[in-house]
Write a structure and sequence with these properties.
The chain is an alpha/beta fold. The chain has one domain: Glycerol-3-phosphate (1)-acyltransferase (3-Layer(aba) Sandwich). It contains 7 helices and 7 strands; from the N terminus they run H-H-E-E-H-E-H-E-H-E-H-E-E-H. The chain has helices at residues 12-21, 27-36, 70-80, 98-119, 134-150, 177-186, 221-237; strands at 43-45, 56-60, 85-90, 122-124, 155-158, 190-198, 203-207. It has a 7-stranded mixed sheet with strand order 1-7-6-2-5-3-4, with helices on both faces. The longest helix is centred in the middle third of the chain and has 22 residues, at 98-119. The termini are far apart.
């Protein structure tokens, strides 16, 4: 059987208090509380690779299934970090059907927006954005860059795929994800990959070594976006069980990098 994940009711009073007072919460503290509710401890490999401070971008696979949401991935990683992580999160959930998506999506936008404010996360529309969301995505990216200007040693967390992938295997990030990571790399951020999976009784995290994003020569923007996504996902793939890697194997994709990032 796969692990069960009880709803973290214990953090709700604190979130309600923050919503009323406007006082930000430290997600790392709540994450440690949340993870303690698991029936079994985390199975952690490569913990020595988890950065103690930034500037670093933690990149994880967008692992999810019925009964497991990305909340648990973010909480698990943050519970181990010595520094609070600023997660890039979805601005709203999507639902099948126009009626359900309009009302449930609207409710999720409200509640997720409140969570983002309480924890100082960065809510971002899908990449690429839906019609009418391009401005919202641009504003979210500006907010992210303002945050790192104020916190130059920040640790940013994100799942480049940005969506649930059928079969729990790795999928290609949407256009724009690689470009965002490249822009962060140009601002001095290194990349810290982590693979998220489950075994029969616990949640597993496998941290890889930190690496820079370095591309060769004058690469057109679209190609650079694709290549950075490829490099990012290959590093995550090496930290996952073989059956979860999808097409991101060293045999199928031989991404190379070299100094002098330019475009």
């Amino acid at each position: 059987m796969t692990p069960t994940y009880p709803f973290p009711w214990g953090v709700i009073p604190g979130l309600l208090s923050s919503s009323i007072t406007g006082v930000h919460r430290i997600f790392k503290v709540d994450a440690q509380f949340i993870i303690k509710s698991l029936p079994n401890p985390l199975n952690v490999s490569g913990r020595e690779n988890l950065p103690s401070c930034g500037p670093v971008v933690i990149t994880a696979n967008h692992y999810s299934r019925p009964g497991f949401s990305m909340l648990w991935m973010a909480a698990a990683v943050s519970s181990l970090s010595s520094q609070d992580i600023r997660w890039v999160m979805t601005r709203a959930w999507t639902y099948p059907g126009m009626f359900r998506n309009y009302f449930l999506g609207g409710l999720s936008r409200f509640f997720l927006g409140q969570i983002a404010r309480d924890y100082q996360f960065i809510p971002m529309p899908a990449i690429p954005p839906q019609p009418g969301e391009a401005i919202g995505r641009a504003m979210a990216i500006r907010k992210l860059f303002r945050l790192i200007a104020l916190e130059p040693q920040a640790i940013i967390g994100l799942a480049p795929e940005g969506q649930d992938i059928p079969g729990h295997t790795l999928g290609w990030p949407p256009p724009g994800a690689g470009r965002l990571i490249l822009e962060l790399a140009r601002k001095g951020f290194l990349i810290a990959p982590v693979g998220i999976s489950e075994n029969q009784d616990c949640l597993c995290l496998n941290f890889g070594k930190i690496y820079p994003i370095e591309l060769c020569g004058n690469i057109p923007a679209k190609e650079a976006d694709h290549l950075v996504s490829q490099i990012t996902m290959q590093h995550i793939a090496r930290l996952l069980p073989l059956e979860m890697r999808g097409e991101f194997t060293d045999q199928n994709l031989a991404a190379e990098s070299c100094p002098n990032v330019s475009q």
